Amino acid sequence: MSAAAKELKHMNKPRHFLTQLDLTPLELRQIINRATELKAMRDRGEDYRPFVGKNLAMIFEKSSTRTRVSFEAGMTQFGGNAMFLSPRDTQLGRGEPIEDSARVISRMVDIVMIRTYSHDIVESFAKHSRVPVINGLTDQYHPCQLLADMQTWFEYRGDIRGKTVAWIGDGNNMCHSYINSARQLDFKLHIACPEGFDPDPGILAPASDHCEIFRDPMEAAKGADLIVTDVWASMGQEEEQKQREAAFDGFQVNSEMMGQANRDALFMHCLPAHRGEEVTADVIDGSASVVWDEAENRMHAQKALMEFLLT
Ligand code: CP
Ligand code: NVA
Question: 47 catalytic, yes or no?
Answer without folding.
Answer: no
